[in-house]
Design brief:
By secondary structure, this protein is an all-alpha fold. The chain has a domain of 106 residues: Alpha Horseshoe (Serine Threonine Protein Phosphatase 5, Tetratricopeptide repeat), CATH 1.25.40. The chain contains seven helices and no strands. It is elongated and about 70 Å long. It starts with a helix and ends with a helix.
Length: 204
């Protein structure tokens, strides 16, 4: 029995996990490259004095978040510094734009956890202090909704993360047995788990 379990793991689970790892590696490399590109574009616009474009590309660099990557944190720091500089100059409109881009960029990266929570708190505190009362209440309501949907996305992400490799292992087993893997029923479970993972990411 143990030999059968070991053989099943080596023949089906390991290849499925390898495919999953390679897919994740491709996504990480692509996100890292895009984040560096957006950060560079934001810096170029900032040097030319085109703040609105710089803020946009720094926000995009944040949204290409990968754990342990320096680029999203650098972009977040640039937006926070730009907002603080605008505040010192009395330009509340530009400061609000910088903090809004910072907050929206960071919230777009939230899934099971919130990356750079100190930056999120700083942006929300500055927005609260600068926004008129009506706008402040609207932002607070949106934030409550956001926290609720983020919690709802966690089970979907977990189900998709656990189920997709297992369903791919089943598909590989059928392929090695010479079965017809091109029938739509064979792809049903992998597609369902992949959609669960994507839906959880979007909801979060």
């Amino acid at each position: 029995m143990e030999l059968k379990i070991r053989a099943f793991i080596l023949q089906y689970i390991v290849p499925a996990l390898a495919v999953t790892f390679l897919l994740l590696l491709f996504i990480i490399i692509r996100l890292e490259r895009d984040s560096a590109s957006y950060l560079r574009m934001g810096d170029d616009y900032a040097r030319r004095g085109e703040k609105a474009e710089a803020f946009f590309y720094w926000k995009m660099a944040i949204q290409m978040y990968v754990p342990f990557s320096a680029m999203p944190r650098e972009a977040a720091g640039r937006l926070l510094a730009a907002g603080e500089e605008a505040e010192k100059k009395g330009n509340d409109v530009e400061a609000l734009r910088a903090y809004n881009y910072l907050r929206s960029g960071l919230l777009a990266t939230r899934h099971i956890w919130q990356p750079m929570p100190e930056m999120t708190r700083a942006a929300e505190d500055r927005l609260t202090s600068l926004a008129p009362p009506a706008e402040r209440d609207r932002q607070a309501a949106l934030l409550r909704v956001r926290h609720g949907t983020a919690a709802a996305g966690i089970p979907l992400i977990l189900v998709g993360t656990l189920g997709w490799p297992v369903s791919m292992a089943y598909l590989l087993r059928e392929w090695k047995r010479g079965g017809n893997i091109w029938r739509w029923q064979r792809f049903l479970l992998p597609v369902v788990f992949l959609l669960s993972l994507i839906s959880g990411a979007l909801v979060s």
